[in-house]
Design a protein that fits this description.
The structure holds 2 protein chains of 2 kinds. By secondary structure, chain A is of the alpha+beta class. Chain A contains 4 helices and 20 strands. In chain A, the strands form 4 sheets. In chain A, strands 12-19-16-17-14-13-20 form a 7-stranded mixed barrel. Chain A is elongated and about 65 Å long. Chain B contains no helices and 8 strands. In chain B, about 0% of the residues lie in helices and about 50% in strands. Chain B has one domain: RNA polymerase II/Efflux pump adaptor protein, barrel-sandwich hybrid domain (OB fold (Dihydrolipoamide Acetyltransferase, E2P)). In chain B, strand 4 and strand 5 (about 45-50) form a beta hairpin. Chain B is mainly beta. Classes of the chains: A alpha+beta, B mainly beta. The interface of A and B includes residues 11, 58, 209, 289 and 290 of A.
């Protein structure tokens, strides 16, 4: 069984829960940007959380099934078509051999997920089927899909899966967003006014937003003047190279903060002034250009509580 | 009349590069599949094509303007 890709979409990749553990040697975690939506898609078709799905970005693929299949589409709101007939999102769809799936114009957010019973069956690389396009690692030949690809699907285990997704579980796609951050490690490089600006201004997501990171526009933040140490670049936002954290915020030149996401580089010479908490990384993934975003500082205890809450939501999907 | 919609969000450009002439201008005859502009998102440029043949009446988005999915980019009178 396979998906015959008739049209590729803008940037369709195979993703799963990711490839943690290799960031220290420069290989990012990758994985579905919107983990919750991908997880619900898997639950709908009777998979486990670990099966790989197709991540569709803005423009989805057109594909044909070579055999009967059970699929589900979750994530960003979009019209789903089977042989041109509209079908439901967030629910289990039965496809016959030679059925053609296609998608309408995305109505919000950035990415939707197509899960299939049995999962996308590409080779496991370093413990994951996720595609890291920049490194040509994992997924389907390490790249975004192209027309003519025959994407293998694994053998389905006979389970029913979720019959319907509680509407409360479906993410909202808002054009105004509060994102929680933990200040640090390099916030001491900002003046008090600079840090205040970062945490109170409304930042607008630009169109420079992808799997590596998201760039925002807004006011300029103020750095403390200093004589740059040996090994650091000449701009006040430069530091001697250090490891980056996923979710960390850097502000090259003091303008246009960048939040690193799942395919980000693992280190460099920009000061990380704050880090988005893990529970809010999916919110960033769903943000479309123009989203008015505020970075709200929380404590480590609040961040850990938010992580526990999200874990409970995810556990409830499988109960 | 037919509207050409943007399939994705981003920045709309009427020309392939700043020093090149626009893909199309009002009054031009447009064929099916003809490119009338590009939208930039995620450092990728996607061509916006007409699904109908006709005459280009007007652009609803300025050059380098921001578009959202489903926004009308241009209007064409069908032949």
């Amino acid at each position: 069984m396979a998906f015959d890709i008739l049209e590729s979409g803008l940037a369709t990749t195979v993703q799963d829960t990711g490839r943690p553990g290799y960031y220290s040697v420069g290989i990012p975690q990758s994985g579905s940007m919107d983990q919750l939506s991908a997880e619900i898609a898997n639950a709908c078709v009777g998979n486990t959380v670990n099966e790989a799905v197709l991540e569709c970005t803005y423009i989805g693929p057109v594909l044909r099934t070579t055999a009967p299949a059970v699929v589900a589409v979750t994530g960003a709101p979009v019209d789903v078509f089977v042989n041109g007939e509209p079908r439901e999102q967030w629910s289990r769809l039965e496809l016959a051999a030679d059925d053609v799936m296609s998608f309408g114009i995305i109505k919000g957010g950035t990415r939707y997920y197509l899960a299939v019973a049995g999962g996308i069956d590409v080779p496991v690389v370093l413990g994951s089927r996720s595609t890291y396009v920049l490194g040509v690692i994992g997924g389907f030949e390490g790249r975004t899909l192209k027309a003519g690809d025959l994407v293998p699907v694994g053998t389905a285990v006979e389970t029913d899966g979720l019959s319907a997704v509680l509407s409360g579980l479906r993410p909202k796609y808002l054009k105004q967003l509060d994102v929680r951050v933990l200040v640090g490690l390099y916030d001491h490089r900002l003046t008090d006014v600079g840090l205040e600006t970062l945490l109170t201004a409304t930042w607008k997501l630009t169109s420079v937003a992808d799997r590596m990171g998201l760039r925002y526009s807004g006011p300029e933040v103020e750095w403390k003047p200093r004589e740059q140490p040996f090994g650091a670049g000449s701009d006040p936002s430069n530091i001697v190279d250090a490891g980056y954290a996923v979710g960390s915020i850097q502000i090259p030149g003091g303008k246009e903060p960048i939040v690193l996401h799942r395919d980000a580089v693992s280190g460099g010479g920009y000061a990380m002034v704050a880090t988005v908490i893990s529970a809010d990384m999916d919110l960033l993934a769903r943000s479309s250009p123009g989203t008015a975003t505020r970075f709200r500082a929380v404590t480590m205890d609040e961040a850990l509580a938010a992580r526990s809450e999200l874990a409970a939501v995810r556990a409830a999907i499988w109960s | 009349m037919a509207d050409i919609l943007s399939p994705l969000p981003g920045i709309f450009y009427r020309s392939p590069s700043p020093d090149k002439p626009p893909y199309a201008k009002p009054g031009d005859t447009i064929t099916v599949g003809q490119t009338i502009g590009i939208v930039e998102i995620m450092k990728q440029f996607s061509e916006v094509r007409s699904e109908v043949a006709g005459t280009l009446v007007s652009f609803s988005i300025e050059d380098t303007g921001t578009v959202d999915p489903g926004d009308v980019i241009a209007t064409i009178t069908e032949e």
